[in-house]
Design goal:
The structure is a single chain. The protein is built from three helices and two strands. It is mostly helical. It has two domains: 58 residues; 30 residues, no CATH class. It has a two-stranded antiparallel ribbon. Helix 1 runs parallel beside helix 3. The longest helix has 22 residues.
Length: 91
């Protein structure tokens, strides 16, 4: 196995990890794919940048709450549950 093939496998593995980690940290699918492609194409720039953004985002967590009606978790403070439409906050 050549050095180029090993580098390709490492880049693919790290980019897949970044995609799964981004999805776990509530990034949208297009944003997760963007991070994954950036890391795959130019790991030396995008991987440190992703880790810095991830650390800053962890300092400011998004509040999650369970709906009283459907018991599904939603983020932020909407007036209505995004899953069932139940009024969760008086306007």
């Amino acid at each position: 196995m050549s050095t180029q093939q090993i580098a390709l496998f490492v880049a693919a593995g790290v980019s897949i990890w970044v995609y799964m980690d981004a999805k776990k940290n509530n990034y949208s699918t297009p944003m997760s794919i963007g991070w994954m492609l950036g890391v795959f194409m130019l790991m030396i720039v995008f991987l440190p940048f992703y880790l810095i953004v991830k650390a800053k985002r962890a300092k400011h967590p998004v509040m999650s709450t369970a709906c009283e009606h459907c018991s599904k978790v939603y983020f932020g403070s909407p007036n209505y549950c995004p899953h069932c439409g139940y009024l969760v906050r008086k306007v």
